Amino acid sequence: MTTSLPHSLYIDIHLIQSYPYSNLNRDRQGAPKSAKYGGVMRARSSSQNGKRHTRRAVEDATGIRAMRTRGVPKAVAKRLVSRGWNEDVALTAGQMLILAADVKGLGIADSQGTNALLFLPESALDELAELADTHRGDITQAAYDIDAEAQKAAKKSTRNTNDTDSDADGGGEEEPAIGESSTLAKYAKKVLPKAEVLSILQSKNASVAAFGRMLANEAGSTVDGAVQMAHGLSTHAASTQLDYFTAVDDILEQEGTETGAGHMGDNRYTSATFYRYASLNVTELLGNLDGDRETADLVTAEFLRAFVTTVLPAKSSGTAPFTVPHLTYIAVRNDRPVSLVGAFETAVPDSPQGYLPASMAELNRHAAAHHRFLGTTGLVTHAHSGLSEDTFDALGERVAGLDGLITRVIDTLAKEQG
User: Fold this and answer.
1) Could you tell me the sign of the dihedral formed by the alpha carbons of 399, 283, 45, 348, in that order?
2) H/E element, 126
3) What is the pLDDT of residues 54-79, one digit of tens each?
């Protein structure tokens, strides 16, 4: 069933979640990421990290997967080898498919993959392999011609080098990526149909529709993602804590020949109560899915579930930070997304009761302030649930659990969409 909406619909989801001593998201130095907000340093979990783990959870739940990778040529080559292609020719074919698209700036890196990350449905890899297979003869001949040209150029280069008195060795400069002006690109454009290759690279599925895609210099591949996700911030001031650790050498301990540690080091951790926020543009998602409401509802439900339940697994083997939110608040709006992060611009103070009670109360207070200022005409429905048994009057009705929240959202969308 296809549907168009008479107005925009947005789903805002807000979490208050306490994490123990952990390192959910590391910076370059291996320390927990941080940000300054409201004049104090906060613990932070990046939106990129949250998006990736949420996306993978949604893909696992729906079975609809996309790949963000530089490895398209090698992945296509692997499929072609399984069809009986020569390995070298198969890799050439995978690279030619990329260059046949003739996207400015998109080329082949020294690693033999693309020089930029591509994001495309997993099924696109099979489609690219199928397209290459239909042009197998031309590609194979092109591969031999390219190799012959390379050998000829190498011989010419050797002769020129022997004729010169130059003492420059040229060894300090890396070979550039293979681009649109290369011999490989010339043959690719000759033997492969640009329109068909581009069509595959531009293809999208539910994952691409939800999380978006941008390919520089190729507007047709760009998809504005329906999901907008904020960086998670601690509701209070937070600092990095140093953990000095040792590891015992079991054999030395058994032999009793040496005392002390076999290894010593230190790790950095933090503990914090986070406010996490994301918004899903239902109108955008439905448009990206060409009006397929059944798939849009499936993605919506699984996105909400994944955002609440997905574990951010960094250093999980040593910290097991497998918590769930104490408070989950979901609002469906028909005017615009509304983040409530301003509730914590003034950091929650230290308390013997911890940060959770005050954080949840501040979220409720700030939501009430929004309702007074903006009114509630743009608020289609809202509700809350979580581990806390408290009811928060500004956060809509309290429902029994996550399933109840998701059901309420999907039922509301059905009514709004007619």
Assistant:
1) negative
2) helix 122-134
3) 999 999 999 999 999 999 999 999 99
